Structures are given as structure tokens and as C-alpha cells.
Amino acid sequence: MTKQERAARTRQALIRSAAAVFEQHGYAQARLAQISFGAGVSTGALHFHFDNKAAVAQAVVAEASRRLRELSAAVRRGTDNALQALVDTSHALLERLRDDPVSRAGFRLSCDGDEAAVPDLRLEWHQRVRELLDEAAATGALAEGVSREDTAAATVAVTAGFEALGRNDPAWLAPPMLTGFWNLLLPRIAAAETVAHVDPSGARAAEPALRAPGPALARPARGAVEPAARVN
């Protein structure tokens, strides 16, 4: 393994460890020593990648953002029905929040008002919801007079609410919760000829996207040498 490959793997290990520490202790109480310990590296190795705790939090949010974009794109490739893609993506997102610590921590950091954590993943999610609704409207899948902005706001509010409630009770992230929401909403927003062709429980078109996401191996600057990992 080259030094650059080792550095990239260490960075991803630190992001995963930070996600677990932030989730367990919260941003304010998290300590860099806990993060480096969880990644199995020295604090020197951590500081090679990140200047401070805010930079670590930023990296967690950025990784969660990347995973959200990849998830959304994978779902969209699985169906030519934009409204079904919206339903499927919402189910995939909640499943990811239930099973992926980095995504959970990223949403929590970006949504709890910490200035160090940008972008706001809820705003990113709102943008994607609105894009899919615009696509659905362009193909005549939405009922006449439906407000895309109101529909997007309701969808984001419900999914964000499930995310917040799911922090203490994972049952809120279970598929039946979101299916119930879509059972209520779809008959009110979908055109009559469309609603029968949209599965509120999710068509599972994005099954491969629901697997545990792999890391994006960000490489350090050319010539940089990472400090040696801690040996226990």
C-alpha cells in the first residue's frame, strides 16, 4: 500500500469514527482523542488530516452529502417515473439513516445549527425533492393545481421529522411510517392516471444503492506523508 493510499484510508477511518463519536456524545462533548482512538491512529495522524474538531465535523457532513447525492442518482436510474423515484428515494434515505452512521451523524450535525457543519443536508434534500416534483409535473404525473413547493415542504418536513424522532426510537425510520405518509399524500398530488402506478411502499428500484456505501478516497496533496498510525 502506498503512502497516499494509507493516508486516504486513514482519513475515511477518522470520518467513520467521528460519526460514531458525534452520534454518541454530540458535537460539543466529542473529543479528538476519542475520534483518533476509534480510528486506531495517533492524534498526530488526525491532525495531519484535520486542523480541529470543526474540520472533522465538516468532513463528516461532506461525506454524508456525497452519499445522499449518490443514493438519489442511483434511485433515479432505476425508474423512468419521477414520482416513483421521489417515493423510492425517501424510503432509501430513511433506510440509510437507520443503517449508516455517517449519514445519521451528517444530518444531525448539519441540521442542529452548528456553524461548522455545512452544507445543510435538509436543504440539499429539499432541492432534490423539488427537482423530482418538477420532473413529475413536466410529464403530467401531478394533478392539476398541485403546488410543487408545498408538496416539497411537506415531504421534507415529514422525512426530517422522522429523522429527528428516529434518533431516540428507530421505529420512526421503519418503512411503514413513510408508507403511511405516501398513502395519504399520493392521492392528493398525483394525476388520476398516475396514482395507480406509484407504489407508496417504494418500488425497491434502488436496491443496490441501499447497500452500505463505500468511501470516497480523497487523496492528500502530492508529496504529503502521513504520520505513522499508532501501534497498540
From TrEMBL:
Xref: NCBIfam families: ScbR_bind_reg (NF041196)
A Pfam family assignment: TetR_N
PROSITE patterns, per the entry: HTH_TETR_2
Keywords from the named record: DNA-binding, Transcription, Transcription regulation
GO molecular function terms listed in the Swiss-Prot or TrEMBL record: DNA-binding transcription factor activity; transcription cis-regulatory region binding
Protein name (record): TetR family transcriptional regulator
Species: Streptomyces violaceoruber
Domain HTH tetR-type intervals: 8-68
DNA-binding residue intervals: 31-50
Record-linked InterPro entries: ArpA-like (IPR047923), Homeodomain-like_sf (IPR009057), HTH-type_TetR-like_transc_reg (IPR050109), HTH_TetR (IPR001647), Tet_transcr_reg_TetR-rel_C_sf (IPR036271)
